[in-house]
C-alpha cells in the first residue's frame, strides 16, 4: 500500500518555487468558485505517520488558500460532552457548510485505527470501518467531497526526523513522548493503516498516500491533488452522483516510479546457484511436510515481464514438492464457461484446500495489467479490480492461506536478448509470438500499471515481492528464499 | 421491519387462478429472453422463518419457470471441502452463469445470522455483513441481479402451522426438532434478521419481505416481484451500473395497508383519563430520576396526521418532567445554515447528552413523508433516507439512548371536525392553515408513505408505536404508558 511512498520523493527548491505561485493562484480561483456556487462542501481529512508533516500540511493549505473560508478542527481525547454521545457526533458538529472547506486533523479514522493498534479486536475494527463507510456514503450522497490524505514516512526516516528535531533546541518541543511511543509501534500502525485504507478507499472519498519526507514534494502533491479534485467536481453539473467504483490513480509528481528503484542486475554464479538451490529445495520440501502446514495452504502468484523466467522459477519450486500436493494453474484467456461468470469466479474455483499448494502462472492480476493496458476492461472495471483483488486475497489469508506474489522484473535490453534467443532456439520457438513483440511496444504503459498494482495490492498480510530477474539464477534463489522465510514465519518452529 | 408482513395477507383461490396463468406465461417469456441475451445471471436467495414456505416457494418457481435453466443449491452444514476454504467459497461455486437463474436455499446470510442467534458477538455479525455487502457489490458490478426474499410468519402463526403439520400423519415428517428450537428462539431470530436486512438492503440487491401465511399471496407476491425485477433489468441497456441508493418499495399485492388495520376509535372517559394521567405522570417523573437514567438519554419522536394531537400529548409529558432535563424541538423548514449541510446535520446537533430528554415535534421523518409526497426530495434521496434514518437512530440506541417514535393516527372525518373547530375557535385559529387543507387532499399518498416508513424503520431496538388518536385521552394515555414501559424495560429495577 505504501511502496511508492517509501522510495523517497524530492522536489528541489527551484522547481517548487516555479510551480508554487501558479498553484496558489489556481487554488484560490477554485476556492472562490466553490464559495460562489456554494452547492457542495469539501472535507479534507489529514492522517499519517507522526513526523510526516500533518500539521505543516494543514498550515500550508491555510496559507495558500483564503483561511477565512476554511474551517479547521483538531480532534483530541474526547471530553464529557463528546463521550456522552454517539461516536460520530463530534464529527457531524464540525462539518463544513456548502461552499466551504473543512479540514480535520485526526478523525473517526484515528479513533478506529488506534483502538485497533492498542489491542482492539479485528472484528470491532471492521465493524467501525463499516460504520465509517456508511457515513461517507451518506455524505457523498449529500454532495460532500471528502478527500483523505495519508502522509507517509518509513520507520527509519521517522527516527531521523525525530532525532533532528530533538537536537535543535528551537524544535525539540515538537517531539513528544507519544511520538516515540508510536515510533515503537510503527509496524503495527502501518499494518492497521493499510487495512483501513484497503477497506475505505472509494471513488467518492479516496485515500491519497503522500511521501512526507520532503516538504516541497509533500506540499505540491497535496496542493495539486486538492486542485484537481476540486476542479473535476466543479466541472460536473449539479446532478452529480457518487460513483460506486474506486478512487483514481495518479503517478507521483516527480515521475519517480517504484520499479525504477529496483536494481535489476544481480550477480550469482552458476556453481553458487546450484549449491544454494539444492539447500533451498530441501528446506522447502521439509516445510511443506511440517506438522502445521496442514492447517494452511500455499498460494503462489507469478507475474512478470514476458520472458522474465516465470516458468523456470516455477519448475525449481515444483521439483521440491510432492506431486500430490500441488497444482500449477496457467492463466490465459477465460473459457466460455468462465466468461459467463463474475470475473473472479475462475480464480475462486482454484482455491486450494488445507495442506495444498496452488501455483498461478499469471493470475487475476491480468485484470489490472493486460486488461487495463489493452483496454479489454473499462476503466471503472479495472479500477474496482484492486479493491476486489484485495478482498479476495485477504479472504484467503484470513482462512489460513499463505499468499505470496512475485513480480519478475527484467530490463528491456535483457528481454530483447531473450526474445532473440528464443527465436533462434528451435525448441523454444513456441514461447515467442507476435503478441510478445506488441507488448514490448507498450513497455511504459505496463511499467505504470505494475507500479500502481503494487501500491494498491501489496499488504503486510499478502505482500508482493519484487524480483530482479536479469540474472535467472539470482531470481530463482530470491523466490525460493522468500518462500522458505514466509513459510517459516507463518508455521513457527 | 416486518410490520406489514405481520397483519396477514390473503389472496382467494379464484383471484389466484385468474392471475396464475398470465404470470407463468410472462415469467417464461422473460426467462427465455434472459437465456437468449445471456448477458447477466439472476441469483435468488430464499430466507425466512421456518414454516413460512421457503421450500414451497423454491418448488413453485421451479414449476412456473423452465427448471432446466434454473440452478438450485441448498446449503446445509459445511463438509470438509468447504470448511477448509474461505467462507464464501461454496457460494462462489454455485453461482449461476449468465442467462440462467440460480436459487439458493440458505446462503451466507444464514451463516452470519445463525452465528449471531447462537451467541456470536455483535461486532462479528457486523463484520460479516460488511463482508457480504462487499461480495454483493462486486457481483452487482459484474452484472449479477441478486434478489433476496424473506418469507415471514408471526410467532403465533408459526406455532399454528407446526401443530397443523404434526397433526396430519402425512405431513408430520415436515416438522423437525430444529423447527421447534427455532420457534423457541423466534424473537431473537426476528431481531437478528431485522438487523441484517437493515444493513444489507441495497438498490442492486434488495430484500423483499413477504407474508408467508397464505400460499396464494406468497406465491403471487414472489412471482410478481421476480417478474418485475427481471423485466426492469432486461429493459436496461448493457451499460447497466448498480445504483448506490436503496431498494424500491411496492405496496402489498392485496392493497391491505398496515394503517388500515389500526382501530382508530377507542374509548376512554374524561374521569378515567384524569386518574390514569396523574398516575402515569408520577411514574414517568420517578423513572427520569431513576439512578440509571443518567447512563441513558431519551429521544421522543412525534409524528402524525395534522391535528392528531401531537402538541397535546407532548404537553402531558413535559408536565411530568424537570425543566432542566428536557428540550422540545419543533421541526419546520430548515434554516439557511441547516440547508448548507447534509440533511441529517440539523438533527445530529440536537442529540441529547446522558440523562437528558429531547422531544421532537415532527422530525427527520419529514424526509420520507412530506418531502416524498410533495416531491421536495428526489426519489433516490428519500429512498436512501430509510437507510440513513435507521443508521442514525441505531447509533443513538447503541450509545444508550432510548428512542421512541409515535405515529398519532386519526380518521379523515375526525380531522375534518378538528379543522372546523380550530377555525371557529379564536385562540386556535393560528393552528390551521391553507397547507393543512392541501395536505388533506393527499391523504392516500401520505397513508402509503406512513406504511412504508413503518415497515422500513420500525425495529425492535427503535420501534414505532402506532397510536389510535380519534380519542385524545386514549392517545395521551397510550403514549405515556408506552414511555413508562419502555423506560422500565431499559432501566430495570
From TrEMBL, chains A, B:
Keywords: Nucleotidyltransferase, Transferase. One of its GO terms (molecular function) is nucleotidyltransferase activity. The keyword Transferase applies. Gene3D superfamilies: P-loop containing nucleotide triphosphate hydrolases. InterPro entries: P-loop_NTPase (IPR027417), PolyP_AMP_Tfrase (IPR022489), PPK2-related (IPR022488). Its EC number is 2.7.4.33. It is an enzyme of class 2 (transferase). SUPFAM superfamilies: P-loop containing nucleoside triphosphate hydrolases. Residues 11-233, 267-489 form the Polyphosphate kinase-2-related domain. It holds the Pfam family PPK2. This is Polyphosphate:AMP phosphotransferase. The gene is pap.
Amino acid at each position: 500500500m505504501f511502496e511508492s511512498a517509501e522510495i523517497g520523493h524530492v522536489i528541489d527548491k527551484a522547481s517548487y518555487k516555479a510551480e508554487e505561485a501558479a498553484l496558489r493562484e489556481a487554488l484560490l480561483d477554485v476556492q472562490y468558485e466553490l464559495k460562489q456556487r456554494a452547492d457542495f462542501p469539501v472535507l479534507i481529512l489529514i492522517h499519517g505517520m507522526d513526523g510526516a508533516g500533518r500539521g505543516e500540511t494543514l498550515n500550508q493549505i491555510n496559507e495558500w488558500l483564503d483561511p477565512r473560508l476554511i474551517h479547521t478542527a483538531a480532534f483530541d481525547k474526547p471530553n464529557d460532552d463528546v463521550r456522552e454521545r454517539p461516536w460520530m457526533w463530534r464529527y457531524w458538529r464540525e462539518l463544513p457548510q456548502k461552499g466551504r472547506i473543512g479540514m480535520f486533523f485526526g478523525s473517526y479514522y484515528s479513533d478506529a485505527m488506534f483502538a485497533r493498534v492498542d489491542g482492539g479486536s479485528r472484528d470491532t475494527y471492521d465493524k467501525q470501518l463499516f460504520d465509517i463507510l456508511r457515513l461517507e456514503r451518506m455524505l457523498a450522497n449529500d454532495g460532500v467531497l471528502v478527500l483523505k490524505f495519508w502522509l507517509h514516512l518509513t520507520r527509519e526516516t521517522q527516527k531521523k526526523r525525530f532525532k533532528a528535531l530533538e537536537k535543535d533546541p528551537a524544535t525539540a518541543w515538537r517531539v513528544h513522548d507519544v511520538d516515540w511511543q508510536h515510533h515503537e509501534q510503527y509496524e503495527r500502525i502501518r499494518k492497521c493503516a493499510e487495512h483501513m485504507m484497503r477497506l475505505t478507499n472509494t471513488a467518492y472519498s479516496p485515500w491519497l498516500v503522500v511521501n512526507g519526507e520532503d516538504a516541497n514534494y509533500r506540499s505540491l502533491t497535496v496542493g495539486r491533488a486538492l486542485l484537481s479534485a476540486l476542479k473535476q467536481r466543479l466541472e460536473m453539473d449539479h446532478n452529480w452522483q457518487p460513483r460506486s467504483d474506486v478512487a483514481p490513480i495518479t503517478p507521483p509528481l516527480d515521475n519517480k516510479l517504484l520499479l525504477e528503484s529496483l536494481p535489476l542486475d544481480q550477480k550469482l554464479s552458476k556453481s553458487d546457484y546450484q549449491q544454494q538451490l539444492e539447500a533451498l529445495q530441501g528446506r522447502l520440501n521439509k516445510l511443506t511436510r511440517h506438522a502445521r502446514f496442514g492447517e494452511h495452504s500455499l498460494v503462489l502468484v507469478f507475474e512478470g515481464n514476458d520472458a522474465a523466467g516465470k516458468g523456470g522459477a516455477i519448475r525449481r519450486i515444483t521439483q521440491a514438492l510432492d506431486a500430490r500436493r500441488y497444482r500449477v494453474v496457467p492463466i490465459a484467456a477465460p473459457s466460455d464457461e468462465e466468461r459467463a461468470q463474475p470475473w473472479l469466479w475462475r480464480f475462486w474455483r482454484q482455491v486450494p484446500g488445507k495442506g495444498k499448494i496452488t501455483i498461478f502462472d499469471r493470475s487475476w492480476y491480468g485484470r489490472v495489467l493486460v486488461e487495463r493496458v489493452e483496454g479489454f476492461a473499462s476503466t471503472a472495471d479495472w479500477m474496482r479490480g484492486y479493491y476486489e483483488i484485495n478482498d479476495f486475497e485477504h479472504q484467503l489469508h484470513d482462512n489460513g492461506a499463505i499468499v505470496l506474489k512475485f513480480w519478475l522484473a527484467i530490463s528491456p535490453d535483457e528481454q530483447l536478448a531473450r526474445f532473440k534467443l528464443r527465436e533462434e532456439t528451435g525448441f523454444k520457438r513456441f514461447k515467442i509470438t507476435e503478441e510478445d513483440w506488441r507488448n514490448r511496444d507498450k513497455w511504459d504503459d505496463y511499467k505504470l500499471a505494475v507500479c500502481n498494482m503494487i501500491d494498491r495490492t501489496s499488504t503486510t498480510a499478502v505482500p508482493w515481492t519484487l524480483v530482479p530477474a536479469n540474472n535467472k539464477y539470482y531470481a530463482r534463489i530470491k523466490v525460493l528464499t522468500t518462500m522458505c522465510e514466509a513459510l517459516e514465519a507463518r508455521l513457527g518452529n
